[in-house]
Design a protein that fits this description.
Elements lengths: L14 E5 L3 E6 L4 E6 L6 H18 L3 E5 L8 H17 L4 E5 L4 H15 L4 H4 L3 E5 L2 H6 L1
Parallel strand pairs: 3-4, 4-5, 5-6
Antiparallel strand pairs: 1-2, 2-3
Length: 148
């Protein structure tokens, strides 16, 4: 991970739920929120999918509504992973009750532009009734994302 956690997660009500070589998850049951902090600069697609399948189980079993996704460690943009995340995982999680997504992107402008372009293309292929119910917010740091 190329950044430090800038707030005390325990005082914010988050507890460690799960960790693997690619991500660490913190759960706040009172806020029905799951925080995912990626640890690596790149995650191979199968590892990405497996990690998010584990996240799916947590979301479903805890009936979570908010997903905070800290992607600042990424230095490689991988289009197929993003497409799967949007068209498969997010749709499945929407049907499970997860509709609020708070994201923290890497600071690099090229990465942010790649996400913006890919997102527009992916969303143009998705069902409007699902897209209209997503609440997606972008933040510069973890404190902003958790306090929103």
């Amino acid at each position: 991970m190329n950044h430090t956690i800038e707030i005390d997660l325990i005082s914010e009500g988050y507890q460690l739920e799960f960790s693997n070589e690619h991500a660490v998850l913190h759960l706040n049951t009172s806020k029905k929120s799951l925080l995912c902090i990626l640890k690596k600069d790149y995650i191979p697609i199968e590892d990405f999918r497996n990690t998010f399948k584990q996240i799916s189980e947590i979301v479903k079993s805890r009936k979570l509504e908010t997903f905070v996704f800290d992607k600042r460690s990424l230095t490689i943009f991988h289009q197929p992973s993003m497409e799967w995340y949007y068209t498969v995982w997010k749709v499945e999680m929407f049907h499970a009750g997860l509709s609020t997504h708070r994201k923290i992107l890497p600071r690099e402008n090229w990465f942010r532009k790649a996400v913006e372009i890919a997102r527009k293309e992916i969303e143009s292929k998705m069902k409007p009734e699902i897209l209209s119910n997503y609440k997606i917010y972008y933040f510069e740091n973890l404190a902003e994302a958790l306090d929103f």
